[in-house]
Automatic annotation (TrEMBL):
GO biological process terms, semicolon-separated: iron import into cell
Family: Belongs to the DyP-type peroxidase family.
Organism: Cohnella abietis
Protein name: Deferrochelatase
Cofactor note: Binds 1 heme b (iron(II)-protoporphyrin IX) group non-covalently per subunit.
């Protein structure tokens, strides 16, 4: 089949054309052959054929997708450590990751293989599935730019202004194996298998260039348009409505003029894995639970108000209420958190579960860190939570077709 026919003829079920080179590329990873050298986009996708725009979120634009995109139901965070010091190899990896992002967010897969003697290029578990609003968001940690004063890849001068580890907090109980990383990939989708497929193939494509440091999966309740509830049963995300306009996003989320050019349209992703002590919470009274946040459980209304989105008066709340403390900091952040469950805590027999707190902001020094300090010293929520992992990443602005992620950092 010639390549024009491939483009015209391929449906999602027929999946994408991939050369045998791809299999070789995957097998030899860092040896220099691009793993998805000749992947092409699907002509159409099966489940999304009737209305693909409802099923796909554009990957290209001023900003990366997955930041102010309405939250999908499933999320994975995969944190990578770059293992090569060869800048050209890093560029190859990022080109492959970008091509694969383009392919998978538009509903494609790599070909499962022409050559029975080679492993299939694609792992195959999304062959019959639509794009499911898949988004991929990349960010770079402090150690991508320099490690112990050593300028990695010659780019330390391009390190963004506020990129550093979140300082140690009074009540931190951090596991460093689950924290930080050189590169973060946030993958979100309406179908968990679609999201995991993307993560899995990012990992495969990284062979020879990077290793996985940690991975974390999350979910939210998805009842169309309503604020999701966290595992304490409270609506979580209400206050995002205070800045959800283009001007609001400029003030709160998108990096300022004081940043390197590659941060234009970019932002900072802050991550805190916060364990929630469900057994303790479930034994506490409704009054105690509501006093913890300063909001009512069922309606989500702030104390002294009737409805979820009514204007908050912090004076109506206990001094240690979570929302009162957030207001006291006088800062806004854009939260995009997910719940997680991690099985049983074998030491106690309790459920290991909580919130993957993810926030996007233009200036973590001003917006996030003072708020976090205030909360960690005075928040009633501390009786029921423990912060177990932490990270900060700088997310570059969006891409135009033909560019690859990180290009404006690694080139020019
Ligand atoms: C430092 C930042 C924050 C951390 C860490 C954090 C953890 C955390 N939050 C909840 C539950 C809720 N948070 C709510 C509001 C809220 N939280 C933060 C910041 C952090 N939360 C802010 C800035 C706000 C908005 C405050 C405001 O301006 O009104 C709420 C109320 C509803 C809402 O607005 O979303 C809940 C509920 C948990 C369970 C948690 C850690 C486990
Ligand atoms: Fe909160």
């Amino acid at each position: 089949m010639d390549s024009k026919k491939q483009r015209e003829g391929m449906t999602r079920r027929d999946f994408l054309k991939m050369t045998a080179v791809a299999g070789v590329g995957l097998a030899i990873g860092g040896a220099g052959v691009s793993a998805i050298e000749r992947a092409v986009r699907p002509a159409s996708t099966s489940a999304a054929e009737s209305n693909p725009s409802e099923d796909t979120i554009p990957m290209y634009g001023e900003h990366q997708a997955g930041i102010i995109t309405p939250q999908q139901t499933y999320m994975y965070l995969a944190s990578f450590r770059i293992t090569t010091e060869d800048k050209a190899a890093v560029i190859r990896l990022f080109r492959d990751w970008t091509r694969f992002s383009d392919l998978s967010t538009s509903g494609g897969t790599m070909k499962t293989g022409d050559n029975p003697l080679l492993p299939p290029s694609d792992t195959g578990e999304t062959l019959d599935l639509p794009a499911s609003k898949l988004t991929v968001t990349f960010g770079f940690g402090p150690t991508f730019f320099s490690v112990e004063g050593k300028n990695r890849f010659g780019i330390s001068a391009k390190s963004p202004r506020y990129l550093k580890d979140i300082p140690r907090m009074p009540k931190d109980n951090l596991d460093h194996l689950q924290s930080g990383g050189d590169v973060i990939v946030q993958v979100c989708a309406e179908d968990q298998q679609v999201a995991f497929h993307a993560v899995r193939n990012f990992i495969r494509l990284s062979t020879g260039y990077a290793t996985l440091k940690w991975i974390q999966e999350g979910f939210i309740s998805g009842s169309g348009g309503k604020t999701p509830r966290n595992l304490f049963g409270f609506k979580d995300g209400t206050a995002n409505n205070l800045h959800q306009t283009p001007a609001g996003y400029n003030d709160v989320v998108w990096a300022g003029e004081d940043e390197p050019a590659w941060m234009k349209g970019g932002t900072y992703l802050a991550y805190r894995k916060v364990r929630m002590l469900l057994e303790v919470w479930d034994r506490s009274s409704l009054t105690d639970q509501e006093d913890t946040f300063g909001r009512h459980k069922e309606s989500g209304a702030a104390y002294g108000t009737k409805d979820e989105f009514d204007t908050v008066d912090p004076a109506q709340m206990p001094v240690s209420a979570h929302v009162r403390l957030a207001k006291q900091s006088k800062q806004l952040i854009h939260r995009r958190g997910y719940s997680y469950t991690d099985g049983v805590d074998l030491r106690t027999g309790n459920v290991n579960a909580g919130l993957l707190f993810i926030s996007y902001q233009k200036n973590p020094d001003e917006q996030l860190i003072p708020m976090l300090k205030l909360m960690q010293s005075q928040d009633k929520l501390n009786e029921y939570t423990s912060h177990v992992a932490s990270a900060l990443f700088a997310c570059p602005g969006g891409l135009r077709e033909g560019q690859y992620i990180g290009q404006s950092i690694l080139e020019s």
